[in-house]
Design a protein that fits this description.
Elements lengths: L41 H15 L6 E5 L7 H4 L3 E4 L5 H11 L4 E7 H7 L1 H10 L4 E6 L34 H7 L4 E6 L6 H10 L4 E6 L11 H4 L4 H4 E3 L7 E2 L5 E6 L4 E6 L18 H9 L8 E8 L6 H12 L5 H5 L9
Parallel strand pairs: 1-2, 1-3, 3-4, 4-6, 5-6, 7-11
Antiparallel strand pairs: 5-11, 8-9, 9-10
Helix pairs in contact: 1-7, 3-5, 4-5, 6-10
C-alpha cells in the first residue's frame, strides 16, 4: 500500500527563511590601514560613506568603487567592496565599462579636483553628458595633495605652490558649473565635516537614475589648510552656506533673516535681508531643483564675500532612459541578426590591392 499518512506534505508551508542580517559600518570597512595625513578631510568622507551604505540597503558584492590617482583615489582600498584603482584621470572610462558590462552594479566614482578636472577633465565631461548611471564624488581641496602641493584647476588665483612659485594666474574652475555645462542631470555640493548633511546628499545621489555629480569641499591639512575656512568654519557657516531644500524658500543666516532673490534687471541672484526696506519672506526665491537655469546661477553663488555657497542638491532632473539602458537596447536589437564582421564591413569600406 502506498503511504497515505501525509498526503499534503509537499503542500505544507515551508518555514520562513531567516532574513539577511542588516549590514553595518564594520561590514563595509576593509582590513587595510587608512593612510591619509592626520586631520585630512578624507577620513570623515570615508566614515560617512561606510555608515551610509548600510542605510541604503547596499551589499558588498553589488557595490563597486572606481578611482583614479590622488589622495582621494585610495578610497577603494578602505571599502570592503569591489574596487578598481585605475590610472590618472581615466576612472570615468573604466567606471563606464563596469556599468555597461553589468548595469545591476552600484558604481561609485571617486576623484579629486586635479584627477577629475585637469588630467581627467575630458573623460569626466563625457561620462556626464552620456548620463552613465553612476555616483561621482569629487573631493575638492583646491590643490594636488598626493604629488606634494601643485596648484589645480580649482586653486584660487595667487596660490603659491611648487608649480606656481610666484602665484597662480589661472582663473578658478567651478566644478558644479563644469558639471552642469557638460550636461549633468544631477549636481550637488556638501562639506567633508558636515556629517549630518553629507549622508543625505549621498542618499539622493544614489537614488538618482543617471550620472549624479557631488562636489565635496575637502580640507588638505598639509598643502592647503583652511582653504574653505571662510565657508565652513563654525563661526561663519550659517551666513556662508545656503542649505537648499526643494520647494522651500532660500533662507539662511545665523538669525534666519537673509534670503536669495532673483533680480530681473541684472538677471542674477542677489542676497536680501528680511525686514529691511519692506522685504518679506514672500520675496525670497523658492528652490526648484528641476530648474536648470536656476541651478546654473546657484552654482556661481558665493563668488562675492557677502554671498553664501549653495549646499545640497542644486539640480536633479532624470532622463527618460539612461546610457546603459540605451546601449543594451541597441545590443539586444541586433543580437543574433548581424555578425561582428558584417557590422565592421558595412557602410563605406575600401579594398586595397
Amino acid at each position: 500500500m502506498n503511504d497515505m499518512t501525509a498526503p499534503n506534505q509537499d503542500l505544507a508551508e515551508k518555514p520562513a527563511e531567516n532574513p539577511a542580517p542588516k549590514l553595518t559600518i564594520k561590514d563595509f570597512t576593509s582590513d587595510q590601514e587608512v593612510r591619509w595625513c592626520p586631520g585630512c578631510g578624507d577620513y570623515a568622507i570615508l566614515k560617512c560613506m561606510q555608515r551610509t551604505l548600510p542605510e541604503l540597503g547596499a551589499t558588498r558584492e553589488n557595490t563597486v568603487f572606481v578611482s583614479g590617482i590622488g589622495c582621494s583615489s585610495r578610497f577603494p582600498y578602505y571599502m570592503d567592496t569591489y574596487g578598481f584603482h585605475t590610472i590618472h584621470g581615466r576612472a570615468p572610462a573604466v567606471a563606464t565599462g563596469v556599468k555597461l558590462a553589468n548595469p545591476e552594479l552600484d558604481v561609485w566614482l571617486i576623484t579629486g579636483d586635479g584627477d577629475g578636472l585637469s588630467i581627467g577633465g575630458n573623460h569626466l565631461m563625457h561620462v556626464l553628458r552620456r548620463d552613465v548611471d553612476m555616483n561621482i564624488l569629487l573631493f575638492n581641496n583646491k590643490i594636488y595633495g598626493l604629488t606634494k602641493g601643485q596648484y589645480s584647476p580649482t586653486s584660487d588665483p595667487g596660490t603659491k605652490a611648487p608649480s606656481t612659485p610666484q602665484g597662480s594666474i589661472d582663473p578658478t574652475l567651478n566644478p558644479i558649473a563644469f558639471a552642469l555645462g557638460s550636461g549633468a542631470r544631477f549636481a550637488a555640493r556638501t562639506v567633508d565635516t558636515a556629517l549630518k548633511h553629507m549622508p543625505g546628499v549621498f542618499t539622493r545621489a544614489h537614488g538618482f537614475k543617471g550620472a549624479s555629480f557631488v562636489e565635496i569641499l575637502q580640507n588638505c591639512i598639509v598643502y592647503n589648510d583652511a582653504t574653505w575656512a571662510d565657508v565652513t568654519s563654525k563661526s561663519v557657516a550659517a551666513d556662508k552656506q545656503l542649505l537648499l531644500e526643494n520647494g522651500q524658500p532660500m533662507i539662511f543666516g545665523a538669525e534666519r533673516n537673509k534670503g536669495i532673490r532673483f533680480n530681473a534687471k541684472t538677471f542674477a541672484l542677489e542676497v536680501i535681508t528680511i525686514g529691511e526696506d519692506g522685504i518679506t519672506e514672500d520675496d525670497v526665491l523658492v528652490h526648484d531643483e528641476t530648474n536648470l537655469q536656476l541651478a546654473r546661477m546657484l552654482a556661481e553663488l558665493g563668488g562675492e564675500p557677502h554671498e553664501p555657497m549653495a549646499m545640497g542638491v542644486l539640480y536633479a532632473e532624470p532622463a527618460e532612459i539612461t546610457y546603459a539602458d540605451a546601449v543594451n537596447a541597441q545590443v539586444d536589437e541586433y543580437k543574433g541578426k548581424r555578425s561582428l564582421r558584417d557590422m565592421i564591413y558595412s557602410g563605406q569600406t575600401w579594398e586595397v590591392s
